Amino acid sequence: MNIHFYKYQGTGNDFVILDNRNGAYNSLTTSQIEHLCDRRFGIGADGLMMLENDPAYDFRMKYYNSDGREGSMCGNGGRCLTAFARDMGVGKKEVRFIAVDGPHEASFRDNGWVNLKMQDVDWMEVGNMYFFLNTGSPHFVKFVTDVQEVDVYTQGREIRYNERFAAEGTNVNFVQELDNGIFVRTYERGVEDETYSCGTGVTAAALTSAPAEEGDYTIPVETIGGQLEVRLTRTGERSFSGIWLCGPATPVFEGNIKI
Fold this sequence. Notes:
Diaminopimelate Epimerase, Chain A, domain 1; 17 strands; 16% helix
């Protein structure tokens, strides 16, 4: 099979993107997708996305982890696919699309940033020194004193594969509070390693770091791959609405590969 692919990245979270509006890539197997994402033998990416048609929306997002299996919602992926759709002539300054976790809205800023509306969150587990919540994907959040000193791979893997989470898996975020915002590092399930940035993880970290009082907030977020921000409205002790993940989403290159 000959594949024409595109590669996009959002704060270092990188994705292979296929234009599948004609169904040309419906037959791709798990192993083939894993191969395409392989950084040594394939194109190399944290995941693969397909742009697809949907009669009720501007487009449909289908996302696969780098292990080749279809994944849950990917925030940076959603922003990158929105940018790709615009580059393909789909939608205008504001779009609506459907993903595995439901409908999303997205818009573009004049500086090139993509704003992606995430699902409302109405549940959050608050434990001893951790938070657990779902922002389209499940996230374990732990606050630390110095995030740069954390062995994200080892500690994240221990939590992701512990007795509670081993079967379904969870993403694991280590968060340091800064003078203005937070710094987040994430171990992603499906990638099974640290990524430069994780959109749903950044969102989860921002929600857990938001002030306790109800109201509207903007949380600046630093990741290894760059700057993001999360805008949100706290509606209760553990509930949030109007959640927007905002940041850059840019093309890297495009090409052809035969598999």
